[in-house]
Amino acid sequence: LRLLPRQRYLRAEGAESSALERKRNVLCCLVTRILKAEKQLHIDNLVFRVIDACQKGELGPGLQFLSFCCHSVDVLSCVLHLLNQGYLRRQEERPHVLEY
């Protein structure tokens, strides 16, 4: 009995993580682009707009070739990431409204 070389598994995991990283980057760019245009937006509306843009293929210039399925969990994860990085803010009196 012989196992496949370990390098094959590492390359597969690297490709999967690279695809997930690209997806997260595209979603973060969409969130940022939408909030830049709107200045402030309710978090539910933001999630809806990002998912709608993904379904319609409106990912931005140069990204039309990408096609992937995104869910509200993916978008909320990106929103939390951008909040932690300081790119987005919550309003003090209305924490469900996000600002760029």
Q: What's the CATH topology label? A: Arc Repressor Mutant, subunit A
CATH superfamily: Winged helix-like DNA-binding domain superfamily/Winged helix DNA-binding domain
By DSSP, the count of extended strands is: 3
**Helix proportion range:** 55-70%
* Largest sheet features: 3 strands, antiparallel
Q: CATH first level: which class? A: Mainly Alpha
Strand arrangement, largest sheet? 1-3-2
Task: Provide the number of structural domains.
Answer: 1
- Contiguous helical run count: 3
- Helix/strand-derived class? mainly alpha
Global outline? globular
Radius of gyration: 17 Å
**Whole-Å distance between the termini?**
57 Å
Beta percentage is: 5-15%
SSE series: HEHHEE
Organism: Anseranas semipalmata (Magpie goose)
Domain Cullin neddylation: 19-96
Protein name: CUL9 protein
Summarize the structure.
The chain is mainly α and 100 residues long. 61% of the residues lie in helices and 8% in strands. The model has no long low-confidence stretch (mean pLDDT 80).
Can you describe this structure?
By secondary structure, the protein is mostly helical. It has a single domain, classed as Winged helix-like DNA-binding domain superfamily/Winged helix DNA-binding domain (Arc Repressor Mutant, subunit A, Orthogonal Bundle), CATH 1.10.10. It is built from 3 helices and 3 strands. A 3-stranded antiparallel β-sheet has the order 1-3-2. β2 and β3 form a beta hairpin. The protein is globular. The model has no long low-confidence stretch (mean pLDDT about 80).
Please supply descriptive tags for the structure shown above.
Cullin_neddylation_domain, Arc Repressor Mutant, subunit A, WH-like_DNA-bd_sf, about 100 residues, Cullin, mainly alpha, globular
